[in-house]
Amino acid sequence: MAFHSACCRILRRDIDCMGYSRNFTIYDSSDSERLMKEIIKDMGLDDKTFPPRYVLGAISREKDQLITPDDMQARAERTNDIRALRIAQAYTRYQTALKDNNALDFDDLIFVTVSLLEQHPDVLKYYQQKFQYVLVDEYQDTNYMQYRLTKLLSDGHKNICVVGDDDQSIYRFR
User: Fold this and answer.
1) Nearest to 55 by CA among 74, 29, 75
2) 37 contacts: CB under 8 Å, gap ≥ 6
3) What's the CA gap between 71 and 63, in Å, rounded?
4) Distance CA 110, CA 8 (A)
5) What is the pLDDT of residues 111-130, one digit of tens each?
6) Could you tell me if 139 and 163 are in contact, meaning their C-beta atoms sit under 8 angstroms apart?
7) Do residues 142 and 167 make contact, with C-beta atoms less than 8 angstroms apart?
8) Is-contact 39 95, C-beta < 8 A?
9) 90 vs 47: CA distance, rounded Å
10) Is the pTM of this model over 0.85?
11) Which of 35, 85, 88, 164 could hold 73 in an S-S bridge, CB 3.0 to 4.6 Å?
């Protein structure tokens, strides 16, 4: 089972612990882009300076590192990076809008699952007992968020097997 599929199953059972209902919607890239266009417009930002796809890509990279909107905003303020600050503000609005719509984007499937498992030990224990063995294929293509998920799930039985080949990495640029 793929990461996103496994996370979707976990969330359909336990996402109510995170303030969503179990019948959440998954936004595809066009849904996300449409929402971000609205946010950029509402913020009074120029969509040529802050193209929606670029902003969503920046947010995705933050999510890959399990960085919340608040963490991103604090870093941008600390470094006095105005562009990053505007993106962090858009990230905050984006996540608020998703939650208001009981929706997750593709990155959130893993991000919210990791958050759920980290914040709710009873849920983590349930899945650690459920998954006695964890196998990850194409491990060379995993990101930090996927690594955290794998670690959380495999820490129960300590039975993990990963298979990867650096020569086949499709994310070498990471």
Assistant:
1) 29
2) 47, 52
3) 11
4) 8
5) 999 999 999 999 999 999 99
6) yes
7) no
8) no
9) 12
10) yes
11) 88
Residue type, 137: D
135 phi/psi in degrees, rounded to 5: -120, 130
| pLDDT top residue among 147 and 142 | 147
Share of the chain above pLDDT 70, in %: 94
- DSSP symbol at 3: H
Average pLDDT over residues 68-85: 97
- Could you tell me which residues come within 8 angstroms of residue 22 by beta carbon, excluding any fewer than 6 positions away? 11, 12, 13, 15, 16
Q: Tokens representing 140?
A: 């060379």
| Residue type for position 5 | S
* Whole-angstrom distance, CA of residue 155 vs CA of residue 149: 10
Helix (H, G, I), strand (E, B) or coil at 28: coil
pLDDT (mean) for 43-53: 97
